[in-house]
Write a structure and sequence with these properties.
Layout (H helix, E strand, L loop, with lengths): L1 H18 L7 E3 L8 E9 L3 E2 L3 E10 L6 E9 L2 E9 H4 L7 E10 L7 E11 L4 E12 L8
Parallel strand pairs: 3-9
Antiparallel strand pairs: 1-9, 2-4, 4-7, 5-6, 5-8, 8-9
Length: 153
């Protein structure tokens, strides 16, 4: 019976370690009463926390009831409530267009500078169609930690 308990404990421990890095990120809509054409289902950040000087990927799972042929993605980042960064991308840089009706994943990847201070950040993402009509607006928090100071030379 002890071997069965040990096996069960090891199984749950391994499952916990596998699921831990993919914790769900809480997403908030900019306008809680807004009826957005694009509904965001969740955000996965890898790695989480983001490491300064290393590549980071934000996968935003969403769905739409209308085809989207073109548009813009506006990303605004705040550090402890202070606006620190803005970037604008053509939608086709983040996902293949046109986007068909149904589920899709918008992926944004970038490497943050090695001097990016660690701490809590808020990312606000606005998505507009080709006619500048708001499709969705979300925000979520994420953390940045310092990268390793050991260089691979």
């Amino acid at each position: 019976m002890d071997a069965a308990k040990l096996t069960l404990l090891l199984l749950f421990s391994a499952l916990y370690l596998v699921l831990l890095p993919t914790q769900a990120t809480d997403v908030k809509y900019c306008d809680k009463k807004g009826n957005y054409a694009v509904k965001v289902n969740g955000v996965e950040i890898s790695p989480n926390p983001v490491v300064s000087g290393k590549p980071a990927t934000f996968n935003i799972s969403a769905s739409t009831g209308q085809a989207i042929s073109s548009g813009k993605v506006l990303i605004e980042v705040s550090y402890f409530g202070v606006h620190v960064h803005t970037e604008k991308h053509d939608l086709s840089e983040e996902i293949s267009c046109p986007i068909a009706v149904g589920n899709f994943v918008l992926t944004h990847s970038q490497t943050l500078p090695g001097f990016t201070p660690p701490g809590s950040y808020t990312l606000k993402m606005t998505l507009e169609d080709g006619n500048n009509q708001l499709l969705t607006c979300i925000s979520f928090n994420f953390k940045i930690s310092f990268g390793s100071s050991v260089s691979a030379s």
